[in-house]
Known about the structure:
Blueprint: E1 14-17, E2 21-25, H1 29-50, E3 63-68, H2 71-77, E4 87-90, E5 97-101, H3 113-129, H4 136-147, E6 150-151, E7 157-159, H5 167-172, H6 178-183, H7 193-209, H8 216-225, H9 230-238, H10 241-251, E8 259-261, E9 272-274, H11 278-292, H12 300-310, H13 317-329, H14 333-346, H15 351-367, H16 371-391, H17 396-408, H18 415-427, H19 432-444, H20 448-459, H21 465-481
Parallel strand pairs: 2-3, 3-5
Antiparallel strand pairs: 1-2, 1-9, 4-5, 6-7, 7-8
Helix pairs in contact: 3-4, 4-7, 8-9, 11-12, 11-13, 12-13, 13-14, 13-15, 14-15, 15-16, 15-17, 16-17, 17-18, 18-19, 19-20, 19-21, 20-21
Amino acid sequence: xxxxxxxxxxxxxxxxxxxxxxxxxxxxxxxxxxxxxxxxxxxxxxxxxxxxxxxxxxxxxxxxxxxxxxxxxxxxxxxxxxxxxxxxxxxxxxxxxxxxxxxxxxxxxxxxxxxxxxxxxxxxxxxxxxxxxxxxxxxxxxxxxxxxxxxxxxxxxxxxxxxxxxxxxxxxxxxxxxxxxxxxxxxxxxxxxxxxxxxxxxxxxxxxxxxxxxxxxxxxxxxxxxxxxxxxxxxxxxxxxxxxxxxxxxxxxxxxxxxxxxxxxxxxxxxxxxxxxxxxxxxxxxxxxxxxxxxxxxxxxxxxxxxxxxxxxxxxxxxxxxxxxxxxxxxxxxxxxxxxxxxxxxxxxxxxxxxxxxxxxxxxxxxxxxxxxxxxxxxxxxxxxxxxxxxxxxxxxxxxxxxxxxxxxxxxxxxxxxxxxxxxxxxxxxxxxxxxxxxxxxxxxxxxxxxxxxxxxxxxxxxxxxxxxxxxxxxxxxxxxxxxxxx
Length: 487
């Protein structure tokens, strides 16, 4: 399992940096290094099994993970106090984040923080590496399949261990409606969570390791992505669906295979563990809240907490940077700009501060009623975005800010801005808002096939919310404009 937390929770905050992760935790240096190494090996194991290259994601596109003390803290940060959830994930260009509890499970069948984190990282991995129109049962079944990874003492790994935390639902549901699940990729008929996750895992596991059905899952998914009706795709790939259900139900009582990956296949890069400054460490709980802020509902407490801490360390650049993020999260444009300016005095190459300045200017442009003011603030945002892009061309957010500087001014984005937005999407394909922004641009450019490719993963997402609603509406417009084209 992932390296456990130290016995005492009194360890100070530390930060681990690796190829794919930035991890904040109150672990000993050794425990944190081991934790990061195991996550890197987990990422590598998925690449090995999916035959994917070791493509670097770049510093700006790493997943940031915050390890908090218990499940209730994680639940409160998720906005679901009392739910007992052990962790969650939020995707955002240049700022994707996972929160995981360090609370230990009480029983072998409990949904442990490790299982939750690996489940959520698998979602992140799928969105980044091969986004597509995946049925809800498979999105969750695939994540469940990898979430039970076992880390071996020799550095190897086993993938596909039994999902003990799903044992109850798999045992008590005697007659799941598998044909309906396969024919309803969006889960529009509302298959329950117990059935969806439990049997999504079981079917994924069965189809992965059953030699007689080798290649059938890929055939089914490919047909759905090509627009074939789901039931037709399922019958073509699997044959008699009731027979598949009988086989799956018999499989749950049999010894299960797993995939063993040797230590030699799981080589990873260096891992750096550092102690933050005292001010930076004091700011970490506030940083978590600021990073989770959506911008749709301002939380004034974030800024007030940040100001209290910043008053104690007024010269700490890291503290000032978090202060700027907190002020922005609280909707305080003037204060966010001042904090960013203070950072830039000490570090003129701070991309985070430049992005804050650009975002402040964009919000001012949006709030302005006069055309001249809109254009002036938009040009200011553009200048900061270009400065940030020159420092790190592989950071997606400056490219997004540059594009938005045209729309904020009421101007048509230039071809260069549209190209930059496409580049941002390639760097951060997990960001649904970015996908929608690019889809709207491509819709205006009359590129329907590209719009469909972008929107289909959102339209089939089990967690789509308002984004899914907008994606479906835009796809409906495409169908209305070209009724002969299949979705």
